[in-house]
Amino acid sequence: QIIGVGAIVIKDGNVLLVKRGVEPSIGLWAIPGGTLKLGESLRDCAERELLEETGITAKAQECVYVFDFVEHDTQNKIKYHFVVIDFAARYISGEPQGADDALEARWFSPWELNNFPVSKNTLAALRYIGFLD
Fold first, then answer.
1. Which site from 7, 55, 107, 133 is most exposed, i.e. has the minimal number of CB atoms within 10 Å?
2. Choosing from 40, 52, 104, 112, which is the catalytic residue?
3. What residues form DSSP beta bridges with 14?
């Protein structure tokens, strides 16, 4: 298993998402985040990954959503097993720009999300925190 950490940043009624440039979920829009480094705190990881992928600086706050992400290969063997921990993060500064593992980064209003390929786990997290109905 791998520990993944995400940062949910909402500013002016819009949520910051990235278009994933690597597996798993390549090409889908998702909450910015990445893998926890040895000795790194969860909140530090959320802030670091957010900055690396989007250029946005934010302060990680409370943990708001946790889930398992398991993907199987064509022989039904486990290809990935992430335990993902998402934190609410308070926007501080920056304009979104995709970098590192993210092809793109941008703000989305709730109603725009229907028009883009968004990962099912991202949609579930955004519903859970009340961003989506």
1. 133
2. 104
3. 11
**16-43 confidence digits (pLDDT tens):** 999 998 888 899 999 999 999 999 999 9
**In angstroms, rounded to a whole number, what is the distance separating the alpha carbons of residues 3 and 37?**
9
Cα atoms in the Cβ-side hemisphere of radius 13 Å centred on 5? 23
Q: Is 104 a catalytic residue?
A: yes
**3-class secondary structure, 116:** coil
In the 3-class helix/strand/coil scheme, how is 57-111 assigned residue by residue? EEEEEEEEEEEEEEEECCCCCEEEEEEEEEEEEEEEECCCCCCCCEEEEEEECHH
CA 83/CA 80 separation, integer angstroms: 10
* pLDDT class of 77 with cuts at 50, 70, 90: very high
How far is residue 36's CA from residue 85's CA, in Å, rounded to a whole number? 10
